[in-house]
């Protein structure tokens, strides 16, 4: 069952008012989790889906963790750390986040428990690593590793967004230019053609008919377009099956699929390296790392690796049997496992695949730019030629 975010308000054992967000499969499950934390729920509701939702950026969150690590290293008390961090930000969301965490800590919760009450900002991997840091007494070191990890992941995601942003922008501009031509330029030619007294060429007739259709039903087209976008986003958020199929399909898209694959491998390597270096056992790390890969195919493959190791397979053989991990990664991890330097090899693997993402994005940008400009040129030229065909035809007759 797919988990959802629930916003809750309640009272703790000291009758203090608390609020926060919680991931659960249902309202009943959320209430049970809160009851186990000693919280009496007064109100709880499912968070409404928003296409444009205010949130803390990944860069701000990475800096937030880095500042917390620095203060812990300097010996600043945890509660004071959150007060100082809140004063340093103008973003009200970060101030609210610090306040919620501070309230949880004052009520007796550990830092990992306080983070777990904010699922929109802190994932399972981060929470487990913080818990290890608290238990081992090296929270500052763990927080620094987490900040390094988040900065690397943010950099990878930024590259992917860059790869997708340019073609999306060009296609959007092409669509806008086409609509403007159909709504304002084509009708001017249509008025001119009415005086020709002869049958118009087929391309011109098609363009004029489409222009009339768009002009008379533009509101319907807009409603239909926004409805399709909203339905797609809602289906993706509410249907795990659809979301998983979409992630599988993206991996098969030429050029873009290779970038996503390398990004997944970089995230897998980074997450596993950080987990092992923090002291998290491999068998406990793998289920958490599976979620950090960011793609259903690699999530399932990582869980399969865990099952293979459980029955006695070495990690290199388990990766081979999963059939989605490349030979280079398998060889690096096998070498690391045999030499006792698995963390180091995972770090090298992560750096390699991040560099592969960087190079692929740069190459894609270089390749897509002329292709997109050609598409835009063909589209606009095609419309103009269709409009000028009757004039050329008339000129040849005269």
In brief, what are we looking at here?
This protein has 398 residues and is mostly helical. It is 75% helix and 6% strand.
Task: Write out key terms for the chains shown.
398 residues; three-stranded antiparallel beta sheet; Receptor-associated Protein; 16 helices; mainly alpha
Give the arrangement of secondary structure elements:
Layout: E1 4-11, E2 17-24, H1 27-36, E3 40-46, H2 58-73, H3 78-87, H4 92-106, H5 111-116, H6 124-136, H7 139-193, H8 202-216, H9 218-238, H10 240-251, H11 256-277, H12 282-292, H13 296-310, H14 315-322, H15 327-339, H16 342-397
Antiparallel strand pairs: 1-2, 1-3
Helix pairs in contact: 2-3, 2-7, 3-4, 6-7, 7-8, 7-11, 7-16, 9-10, 11-12, 11-16, 12-13, 13-14, 14-15, 15-16
Give an overview of the whole structure.
The chain is mainly α. The chain is globular, with a radius of gyration of 28 Å. A three-stranded antiparallel sheet has the order 2-1-3. It has three domains: 43 residues; 96 residues, Receptor-associated Protein; 245 residues, Type II secretion system (T2SS), domain F (Receptor-associated Protein). A hairpin with a 5-residue loop joins strand 1 and strand 2. Helices cover 75% and strands 6% of the residues.
So how many helices? 16
Strand content: 5-15%
Per CATH, which architecture of the largest domain?
Up-down Bundle
Q: Would you tell me which CATH topology of the largest domain applies? A: Receptor-associated Protein
What ranges have pLDDT less than 50 throughout 5 or more consecutive residues? Answer: 49-53
What strand order characterises the main sheet? Answer: 2-1-3
Note the overall shape: globular
Q: Which CATH C-level class of the largest domain is it? A: Mainly Alpha
How do the SSEs run, as a string of H and E? EEHEHHHHHHHHHHHHHHH
Distance between the termini: 73 Å
Average the pLDDT over all residues and give the rounded result.
83
Largest sheet: 3 strands, antiparallel
